[in-house]
Automatic annotation (TrEMBL), chain A:
<dbReference type="Pfam" id="PF00155">
    <property type="entry name" value="Aminotran_1_2"/>
</dbReference>
<feature type="domain" description="Aminotransferase class I/classII large">
    <location>
        <begin position="54"/>
        <end position="421"/>
    </location>
</feature>
<dbReference type="GO" id="GO:0004069">
    <property type="term" value="F:L-aspartate:2-oxoglutarate aminotransferase activity"/>
</dbReference>
<comment type="subunit">
    <text>Homodimer.</text>
</comment>
<dbReference type="GO" id="GO:0006533">
    <property type="term" value="P:L-aspartate catabolic process"/>
</dbReference>
<dbReference type="InterPro" id="IPR015424">
    <property type="entry name" value="PyrdxlP-dep_Trfase"/>
</dbReference>
<dbReference type="InterPro" id="IPR015422">
    <property type="entry name" value="PyrdxlP-dep_Trfase_small"/>
</dbReference>
<dbReference type="InterPro" id="IPR004839">
    <property type="entry name" value="Aminotransferase_I/II_large"/>
</dbReference>
<dbReference type="InterPro" id="IPR000796">
    <property type="entry name" value="Asp_trans"/>
</dbReference>
Automatic annotation (TrEMBL), chain B:
<keyword id="KW-0808">Transferase</keyword>
<dbReference type="Pfam" id="PF00155">
    <property type="entry name" value="Aminotran_1_2"/>
</dbReference>
<dbReference type="InterPro" id="IPR000796">
    <property type="entry name" value="Asp_trans"/>
</dbReference>
<dbReference type="InterPro" id="IPR004838">
    <property type="entry name" value="NHTrfase_class1_PyrdxlP-BS"/>
</dbReference>
<comment type="subunit">
    <text>Homodimer.</text>
</comment>
<dbReference type="InterPro" id="IPR015424">
    <property type="entry name" value="PyrdxlP-dep_Trfase"/>
</dbReference>
<dbReference type="InterPro" id="IPR015422">
    <property type="entry name" value="PyrdxlP-dep_Trfase_small"/>
</dbReference>
<dbReference type="GO" id="GO:0006533">
    <property type="term" value="P:L-aspartate catabolic process"/>
</dbReference>
<keyword id="KW-0496">Mitochondrion</keyword>
Length: 426, 414
């Protein structure tokens, strides 16, 4: 009643608790638009909502075992135990990262006895996995490769390549790569386009297991590309995110990178250990610049550090310690080679099983590309309307471009998958 | 002929980087390297930006070791975190800074993302401002500020300006000078404020001074960017060190905030940090979040998991959280004790100079007031290493070396 109200009002006025200034109506960000939804995330979210017990998620960009579960490598667990036992401190790494890691990282890519490493003419820094490596590279090119601002990506390329280079200030262009008619490599188309790229432009090459198509050039085709790129005087940027994971063989997957260097291309190279060591969320990668000589490598190193310091100061230690332990401990290294081989093999087996099951279903289409393509991804050749049917009628989730992650295929679901694909393509 | 052609193809010796200059040597690294080369058994390294225990050794917190053991036992996978990081971490990170019951968090009007420690947070913030705060390109730093602030904002495309902060005459805060400069900052400019334990001076405003700054900043309509790298580490008290941040928010400033767990949790090389934007409401926070993710994805896709798991475990496990508060308090206390010991020893040596600022300053660093030539003598004659501006890291001072340090400082200043 009145007296109570008055008392409480007076009490309120007397108290220190006043409504805050209506400053929250001031907004610094009223012009900030909601960004477009992430296409791949959309796939995963729709998958989660689906109640069909037979649903399959083929959008996943991470390896899965034959039960469809994430797989932490045994050599990684052993390395972690070794590291934990040492009770190491958590002092900052150098700006360029853990030395034991960067040395081993370079050797893995280039080969133990590579003359580049022996002569000290590479600089290799630890980075935040493959993305971090590509971005450091893009920023470095933007700052120091001023003769040309264009980066030529294969058509198609990993979606994130475009904003990486664009946000770093480079211009994006493309060269023909994938042939949708054959679901294979458009070799002549690529040579044609590359022959017209202006001198000194940057050309991005996927070292192995092209993402998203799974289509790689054959060695003799790589040789011609290397020749042409040299004639055109282009700066080669290799993206190697799947070394070991593509063919199952570390050296075979690095062949193109090593060949180009042998032929005198002073490349820049991004490496990721997300897939081949299963270190995804630990963010382990490397960025290498192959220089003319050790003196140049020192100059480049100093500038890389100046560039990195105002981005994140120094890289995260944990994943690099794991990778270094594996790469530098013979038993663990051997075990790792076996596990990488195992992962690549399971993928290859799934490709073979999928094609076999499609034939069993009665499909008369040519599915040879499913076996010819390599690595985690497969460009099925499915059209958007077929993809839509596969999702709606069979609860099989993939990106609209018809790309499937073979890692999401298991011996348990490959039969059902073949049923679905056959149903929408017969 | 074949061999000749093959040879010619191989000697394609081409340099893309002939114009790349050797960069200037890092000043602080130079100090550490000179220290390493010195053979004097009494040498002291006061350039170190990391905490040291009283034996001069790196210190991994006990609560961190426990959290690590808990995490290892769970045998978690290594799947990618979300672009914005580990949810258990970002929620706890925001609560730590703003307070558990803060209305900002309750109303969902903050967006907090996990970042690569403090530097990564500042850079994400700088990039975000550069892209979306287009009404003003200037960032005002206190004079002096952490050296890396400048390239962070510059490389992100912002312009750097400064406001008076440190008073070399008093080795303290030039309050009037700061208010004077701030009153002239053009509207909508960004102003950087160190939440506590100003780096490099150790000089912090008092609460009543913070209140006047908050008022003036509001009048000038400035966008506040708080850098909080030392919460808990400055006074030993988590809430006390966050007071300025919370006060500004209470007063209606919609701030942006960088946090680091490098020092207060000793997680240096694990790279754990957070970036927060306090928005008008939850709807705006969603829009801002979507744009932060679009910005982060082409830099590093998603942040490193290990340190965030450790920090989240500590912040979200009551026993560990309590232990952590105690350890942070312990670290801050050791620093404070060293400050007191240094001044006491200087008096014992017979110094008649006013060393009050050594005790008044707070946090890891101390601006001694030594001139470059005095610093040089201290290094040459006593093997005491510090940066030319007279800044010393109190973390490098121990009960074992503080007497010797006082001797040296007195010798070059008497």
């Amino acid at each position: 009643n009145h007296k109570t109200l008055e008392t409480s009002w007076l009490a309120f006025l007397a108290s220190d608790v006043h409504p805050p200034h209506d400053w929250s109506s001031i907004s610094w960000w009223s012009e900030v638009q909601m960004g477009p939804p992430d296409p791949i995330l959309g796939v995963s979210e729709a998958y989660k909502r689906d109640t069909n017990p037979k649903k399959i998620n083929l959008g996943v960009g991470a390896y899965r075992d034959d039960q469809g579960k994430p797989y932490v490598l045994s050599c990684v667990r052993k390395a972690e135990a070794q590291i934990a036992a040492k009770k190491l401190d958590k002092e900052y790494l150098a700006i360029g990262g853990l030395g034991d890691f960067t040395k081993a990282c370079a050797k893995l890519a280039l080969g133990d006895d590579n003359e580049v490493i022996k002569s000290g003419r590479n600089i290799t820094v630890q980075t935040i996995s493959g993305t971090g490596s590509l971005r450091i590279g893009a920023n470095f090119l933007s700052r120091f490769h001023t003769e040309a601002r264009d980066v030529y990506l294969p058509k198609p390329s990993w979606g994130n390549h475009t904003p990486i280079f664009r946000d770093a200030g480079m211009q994006l262009k493309a060269y023909t790569y994938y042939d949708p008619k054959t679901c294979g490599f458009d070799f002549q188309g690529a040579l044609n386009d590359i022959s017209k790229i202006p001198e000194k432009s940057v050309i991005m090459l996927h070292a192995c297991a092209h993402n998203p198509t799974g289509v790689d050039p054959r060695p003799e085709q790589w040789k011609e590309i290397a020749d042409l790129v040299k004639k055109r005087n282009l700066l080669v940027f290799f993206d190697m995110a799947y070394q070991g994971f593509a063919s199952g063989d570390i050296d075979r997957d690095a062949w193109a990178v090593r060949y180009f260097i042998e032929q005198g291309h002073n490349i820049v190279l991004s490496q990721s250990f997300a897939k081949n060591m299963g270190l995804y969320g630990e963010r382990v990668g490397g960025f290498t610049v192959v220089c003319k000589d050790a003196e140049e490598a020192k100059r480049v190193e100093s500038q890389l550090k100046i560039l990195i310091r105002p981005i994140y100061s120094n890289p995260p230690m944990n994943g690099a310690r794991i990778a270094a332990t594996i790469l530098n401990t013979p038993d663990l290294y051997k075990e790792w080679l076996g596990e990488v081989h195992g992962m690549a093999n399971r993928i290859i087996t799934m490709r073979e099983l999928l094609v076999a099951n499609l034939k069993k279903e009665g499909s008369t289409r040519n599915w040879k590309h499913v076996i010819d393509q390599i690595g985690m991804f497969c460009f099925t050749g499915l059209k958007p309307e077929q993809v839509e049917r596969l999702t709606k009628e069979f609860s099989v989730y993939m990106t609209k471009d018809g790309r499937i992650s073979m890692a999401g295929v298991t011996s348990g679901n490959v039969g059902y998958l073949a049923q679905g694909i056959h149903a929408v393509t017969k």
